[in-house]
Structure formats: structure tokens, C-alpha cells
Amino acid sequence: MTPGAGGVIALDVGGTRIKGVVVDGRGEPVESAQWPTRAERGPDAVLDTVLRCADELRARARRRGSPPRAAGIAVPGLVDETSGTSVLAANLGWRRLPVRGRAEEHLGLPVAFGHDVRAGGLAESRLGAGRDCASFAFVPVGTGIAAALLLDGRPFAGARGFAGELGHLVVRPGGEPCVCGNRGCVEALASASAIARRYGEASGRTGASTEDVRARAVSGDRPAVRVWTEAVEALADGLAGLTALLDLDRLVIGGGLALAGEAYLAPLRTALAERLPFRPVPPLVAAELGDRAGSLGAALLARDLLADGGR
Ligand SMILES: [Zn+2]
To answer: How far is the CA of 145 from the centre of ligand 1 (A)?
Structure first.
């Protein structure tokens, strides 16, 4: 990260875990921490936990002699970055919650507020696999699937902040029901949760992880081959649409599925090339920042806020 903007603290709030980072005045991440979200306690308790996590990060930064001058918070779901509101985060129980205002009031610091996947994309673009790319997509494949778009060097959120919902592109009309209410979305076949669920349905064996399904596919287990292949093909359909529309420099795949490395990326690359016979296929690579992308991205947003002299 670039030096000179002052130390910051940042949080990536997920449905299961809250990940935090302390970045010092030189821009170096110097501490990280994780806490359970325990979303079942309700929306107010989760926000209270987020604020206490921020308190703890600030105390750690102070002990290092680098008190933070700003904070960054990244959250999932529908996010209004302009007003600092979590419009809807189903897995946190949040609906129309003015997170930035509550955090600024609590901390007495300027707070940058953003979408978790877009924050992760920002981090990959400056510190990870999207370096030196003017236009790329960061696509974490985990419980859900989304894309953070960087177009001509700028993060693109869309007119209403809803851009990048790659997971809800319909690739199998009338197909599997999706959590969004539609059918046949990329996410309904290609997400980690879809792979585990569909393998359970196809094989009658529940509790298999995506890595189990991949390993069983390699060994020739027929339900595993089918579910794994359909997952790769559905994501390739989505990525081919993205490529045809935007002609990106690079596709950066993150999330739990990318941890399988070339075992996942190589068939995805082949399937993508089959779908784009009329044009060169953009390089498809693994993300570099792992599960730190969201918190590092939130820290970058906070540092940008300081560099801009506040809002
Ligand atoms: Zn959907």
C-alpha cells in the first residue's frame, strides 16, 4: 500500500466470521484478527459486535503507537455506498441499517463503507492478481458467486450499486431454483453450496465438501463427475457472457473453490475457450489475497478516504 495516509483499521463482516486488519501509517498490514459473527443473535447484536471488534482493533493499533485516523467496513449483500447503508444483508439480518453513521458516531473517526466483493476486488487490483490490469473481474466462488468489476481502472458499482451479480445470470432457463427466486442461475449450479447440495441429491450421500466432490470426480464417481462438470460449465457460461460483453484484461477467480488451483482453473479455462470461438480468451488466474481480500480492500477504502481529505 502507498505510504503517508495514516494508519487505519478495517473490518470485513461476513455471515460466519468478522475479519479485521490493522494497517500502519506506512500502509503495511501489521495485525489481523477474526471473530465469530453469531448472526443468529439478531441485527442489533451483530452491529454491536462489529463496533466492539473495531474498538479492539483500535486498541491494538494504539498499543503499536499508530492510532488509526480512519476505519473501513465491508459488508455483503445490497450496499448503498453513497449513504453508508446496508440495504439488505440476509445472512447478517440487516435491512436498511445506516452502518457508516453508527460506526462514525461510535468511533469518532471517518468511516469508509463498501461492498465486500468490490472491496476484495479493489485489494486484488492494487495488491494482488489484478495488478497492472485496467479492466478485470474478481470472481469469488464460495457460498455464493459475485463479480467485482474494475473498468478502465475504476471500481464499477452500477447505477444502484447492484452491478456484478454474475451468480444470478440465468444460464439454464427453467433450471434449478436459486436463492434469488429465479431458476437456472449460475450460482444455483456452480457455487460451493450448490455443488455440495446437488452431489448429496445425486448420490444420496450427504455432508461431502466441494473438495470431496472434486476428488470423487477425479476417481470416476459418476454423480460427482456430473455435478462437478455442470458446475464448471455453468460458471464458464457466466464468464463467457461477461467476456463477450466487457472484453476484460483478466479474470481473477477467488473464494473457496479457487483453493483447488489448477484442478479447478484448467477445466474452467477449457470450457471458457469452447464458448468464445470468435475471440481471444482472457487469462484466467487464481486470486492472490485469499480470505484477506475483503479486509485489505476495506483498509484501502479507509486510506483513500484520508487521502481525499474525508468525504
Ligand atoms: Zn439467482
So the answer is: 10
Q: Ligand 1 center to residue 190 CA distance, Å? A: 11
**Residue closest to 37 by CA, chosen among 61, 13, 58:** 13
In the reported structure, the alpha carbon of residue 18 is separated from the centroid of ligand 1 by a whole-number distance in angstroms of: 25
Say if residue 269's pLDDT is above 80. Answer: yes
The Cβ-side half-sphere exposure at 22, using a 13 Å CA radius, reads 21
How many Å lie between the centroid of ligand 1 and the Cα of residue 26? 42
For ligand 1, the distance from its centroid to the CA atom of residue 119, given in whole angstroms, is: 22
Break the chain into its structural domains and give their ranges.
8-121+291-307, 132-288
Ligand 1 geometric centre to CA of 41 (Å):
27
Which homologous superfamily is 8-121+291-307 in?
Answer: ATPase, nucleotide binding domain (3.30.420.40)
Highest mean pLDDT pick, 15-29, 139-153, 230-244: 230-244
How much is the pLDDT for 310? Answer: 55
Place of cell 455464493: 144
How does residue 253 score in pLDDT terms, banded at 50, 70 and 90?
Answer: very high
**Arithmetic mean of pLDDT over the chain:** 93
Q: How far is the CA of 5 from the centre of ligand 1 (A)?
A: 40
Asked whether the domain spanning 132-288 has the same topology as the one spanning 8-121+291-307, the reply is yes
Q: Are 71 and 111 in contact (CB under 8 A)?
A: yes
Spatial contact of 43 and 93, defined as CB atoms under 8 Å apart: yes
Instruction: Give the C-alpha separation, 209 to 200, whole Å.
Output: 10
Q: What would the CATH number be for the domain defined by 132-288? A: 3.30.420.40
> What's the gap in Å between 189 CA and the centre of ligand 1?
10
